[in-house]
Amino acid sequence: MRHGNVDLGLLRTGAHSPSVFALNRSMGDGTPIVDFCIPCNPYFPTPDMFAALAQNLESILKYYPSDSAEITNKLCGVLGLHQKTVAMANGSTELITWLDHLMIKESVAIPIPTFGRWTDQPLETGKRVDMFPLQEADGYALDLEEYVAFIRSRGSRVAVICNPNNPDGGFLPRREVLRFVDALTDLDLVVVDESFIDFVEAERQPSIAPDAAIRPNVVVLKSLGKNFGLHGIRFGYLVANPQIAGKIAKTLPKWNLNSLAETVVHMIQDYESEYRESLRLLARDRYQMADELGRVPGLTVFPSQGNFLLVKLPPGWSGVDLRDYLLTRRGLFVRECGNKLGMTSQFLRFVVRPQQDVRLLVEGMLAYGRYLHGESSPSLSAGDDRYGTPSTALEPDNLIPYPGRRGLATATAN
Ligand SMILES: Cc1ncc(COP(=O)(O)O)c(C=O)c1O
């Protein structure tokens, strides 16, 4: 279904958000979208890095990359990891897929809500997924003792946690995570997905990657797309003891990493201070953003150590309507969480962005609130309507002309 120039139908299929490419194509007019949906570091790579990549683009695209073992060795050198304990792949999603194929035999426990592939992947291959529901009343905090008791009661053979978790950004201190994995040494596998851990500032060394390398059944997963702000390149890695890491590495195709990934792996050591600075700026923005969102009456903002904030909308607000409103009227792309298991449409996830973008978001939400209460017409506010007026005429008694209220599905199964 089209609304303004944006194809809102793109937002209503599947468990994941549409790509920014697909949305831009649907708009067709080159108007940029401000992306609050895809959790990417906005301060990295630096413009210098992009310029260097652009300068070498022709040879990067023309030639085969080195094989994945060589690229992995370089990454290990840069990050100070033992190469036998690392397997590198085309995004951590590829590793989730192979962990499922190779190491999840019958059942896996996972707290929900979380990243959809952790529930969908094993379900797609016929495994039993034991879902441990996190509670809104606890701010979605994960109690590891209760989770261990749940794993024991279900007899799950594999256990997963995401630290920080997506979509709430909940964080567990390193010592608690170690206690957790050490309580489960009899399981086939314990996975700690640390895809967002570089954004944590609550602890100086929050990762258990070095500990995973010397444990019998622990895998730590890292995504490089989020922290390096390069989702499109698709790279991530895991750390585990040499037997597990070797098993996964041997299964992966020889040239599963592309030349852009190889180029970036060779660049990052020269930009370490810029990278650290990008994380510092992001942590600052996270505080400012939570503060700024406090201007929206009735909005609940959950504490996060990730590069996103989960919010609960005020009573009477619809996440689907608000998402469509922000996109069609303000060009702001947000993640509505109704299609995540364990969430409802009352929840949105906002990627942390610089303050000037957050002001646009807050103004958009305040305008939506006024509109809901009948105080303004959505098509008339200043700065509004960048993407055209809705095709539905607005009547005073028809204050919700958005597709979500007109019978379109608001949530899929997960
Ligand atoms: C917790 C978690 N793990 C893994 C991934 C996948 O990351 P990648 O882009 O490296 O495949 C995501 C993506 O959002 C995620 O939220």
In terms of topology, how is this protein built?
Elements: E1 2-3, E2 6-7, H1 20-27, E3 34-35, H2 47-55, H3 57-62, H4 68-79, E4 86-89, H5 92-103, E5 107-112, H6 117-124, E6 128-133, H7 144-154, E7 158-162, H8 174-182, E8 189-193, H9 209-212, E9 218-223, H10 224-227, E10 236-239, H11 242-251, H12 259-267, H13 272-293, E11 300-301, E12 308-312, H14 319-330, E13 332-333, E14 335-336, E15 347-351, H15 355-372
Parallel strand pairs: 3-13, 5-6, 5-7, 7-8, 8-9
Antiparallel strand pairs: 1-2, 4-10, 9-10, 11-12, 12-15, 14-15
The protein binds pyridoxal-5'-phosphate.
Could you give a short description of this structure?
Helices cover 37% and strands 14% of the residues.
Structure description:
With 414 residues, the chain is of the alpha/beta class. The chain folds into 2 domains: 2-45 and 275-406, Aspartate Aminotransferase, domain 1, CATH 3.90.1150; 66-257, 3-Layer(aba) Sandwich (Aspartate Aminotransferase, domain 2). Helix content is 37%, strand content 14%. It has helices at 20-27, 47-55, 57-62, 68-79, 92-103, 117-124, 144-154, 174-182, 209-212, 224-227, 242-251, 259-267, 272-293, 319-330, 355-372; strands at 2-3, 6-7, 34-35, 86-89, 107-112, 128-133, 158-162, 189-193, 218-223, 236-239, 300-301, 308-312, 332-333, 335-336, 347-351. A hairpin with a 6-residue loop joins strand 11 (300-301) and strand 12. The longest helix has 22 residues, at 272-293. The two termini are 21 Å apart. 44% of the residues are buried. Residues 379-414 have low confidence and may be disordered. Bound molecules: pyridoxal-5'-phosphate. Pyridoxal-5'-phosphate (PLP) binds next to helix 5.
